[in-house]
Design a protein that fits this description.
Structural class: alpha/beta
Keywords: DNA-binding, Transcription, Transcription regulation
Number of helices: 12
Strand content: 15-25%
Organism: Weissella paramesenteroides ATCC 33313
Shape: elongated
CATH topology of the largest domain: Rossmann fold
Protein name: Transcriptional regulator, GntR family
GO molecular function: DNA-binding transcription factor activity; transcription cis-regulatory region binding
Pfam family, one: GntR
CATH superfamily of the largest domain: Response regulator
Length: 366
């Protein structure tokens, strides 16, 4: 539990890093800070003295405390051999394997991991970034939050750049930041999955994609791309779009899928944003009395560990997971050592399994 001293010091440091107090600004008086934080003047003096020692503040005798040009201070070049890792989730889906891959390389190089997650919200991302910056780390590996939307935390990414903290993005990137990144070729991967369904004889395909992250937006583009050379099929296919907030109640998404499956001209195949949603769709399709893949074929994305063990096993595109983690860690270590970084794009790796492997006998099914 933080002491009152820690609370004041961290609060003022966060206000400086976030830009609330710009370089050259005068801090509120001791009396104001005492009232704001409900602490003694002694505690305020200790906290500001600590920030002065860390070059965030400077004092003008008889006038007060001012914000120093802290961006010129190599705060990231710390003796702590710690790498910060920020992902949207930690304990489930593909993330444990990615983090394991990172740790394998990082620990071999003598570094420790400082791990945080955002739950795919900008507010938590901001808190994670501030906490890691103030801790003092050697580098960052970050999975962007809702990467298809404008990022309200761009100011912190600008600070990270100005502090020369080596940083690598995984799974996607923010267009407004020019850090190195590693991502799957989502467009071509999804296009290949849909072409596979078309080759199996499916003309009515329903795509379901999350559209507030770049992965989902690109997979939806891949869905479109597959139909650009199949104009006769495009007219009979449809798309459901959803956002991250909708995942808090997946029933809404599944109910929408169900409404299509119960329509007179129902889809004969589903292309889902990821394996997690595809697994739930398998349960839904079975509950409606349809056979998979004879009545409804299903494809996912990512090759989640459970995809092989489903009945039927799930056709998907393999996400590199551990390899992405290892590659990201090695690129970051190269950046820390002053070497140039590079971007990595993982090309399609389609795995055809039983959820889509049997061709339609006839296109006359209801």
């Amino acid at each position: 539990m933080d002491t009152k001293y820690d609370i004041v010091k961290k609060g003022l440091r966060n206000d400086i890093i976030s830009g609330k107090f710009a370089i050259g600004d005068k801090l509120p008086t001791e009396a104001n800070l005492t009232e704001q934080y409900n602490v003694s003047r002694y505690t305020v003096r200790r906290a500001t003295a600590g920030l002065e020692q860390e070059h965030y503040l400077y004092r003008i005798q008889g006038d007060g405390m001012y914000v120093n040009d802290w961006k010129k201070i190599p705060a990231a070049k710390t003796e702590n051999k710690v790498i910060g890792v920020i992902t949207t989730h930690l304990a489930d889906y593909i993330f444990p394997e990615i983090i394991s891959g990172i740790d394998q390389i990082i620990s071999d190089a003598g570094y420790a991991l400082f791990i945080s997650n955002t739950h795919n919200t900008f507010d938590r991302e901001r808190r994670s970034l501030l906490r890691i910056i103030e801790t003092g780390i050697s580098g960052l590996i970050i999975e962007p939050t809702m990467s298809a939307l404008p990022n309200p935390n761009q100011d912190l990414y600008d600070q990270i750049k100005q502090l020369h903290i080596p940083t690598v993005f995984i799974n996607s990137k923010y267009e407004s930041s020019d850090f190195n990144y590693l991502e799957v070729n989502d467009i071509d991967s999804e296009a290949q999955l849909v072409r596979h369904l078309i080759a199996q004889g499916h003309k009515r395909i329903l795509g379901v994609f999350k559209v507030d992250d770049i992965q989902g937006a690109h997979r939806m583009q891949g869905f479109y791309k597959a139909f650009q050379t199949q104009p006769d099929y495009a007219l009979d296919s449809n798309i459901i779009m959803y956002q991250s907030d909708d995942e808090e109640n997946n029933a809404l998404i599944l109910n929408k899928i169900e409404s299509y499956l119960e329509s007179p001209h129902r889809p004969t195949a589903l292309a889902l944003y990821n394996d997690s949603l595809a697994i739930q769709a398998i349960d839904l399709v079975k509950s409606l009395g349809f056979r998979i893949p004879e009545d409804v074929a299903i494809v996912g994305f990512d090759d989640y560990s459970l995809s092989t063990y489903m009945t039927p096993s799930l056709t998907t595109n393999r996400h590199p997971k551990r390899k992405m983690g290892r590659d990201a860690a090695q690129i970051l270590l190269d950046l820390i050592d002053g070497q140039p970084g590079h971007d990595v794009i993982y090309e399609p790796d389609i795995i055809v399994r039983n959820s889509s492997a049997t061709p339609l006998i006839s296109d006359d099914k209801d």
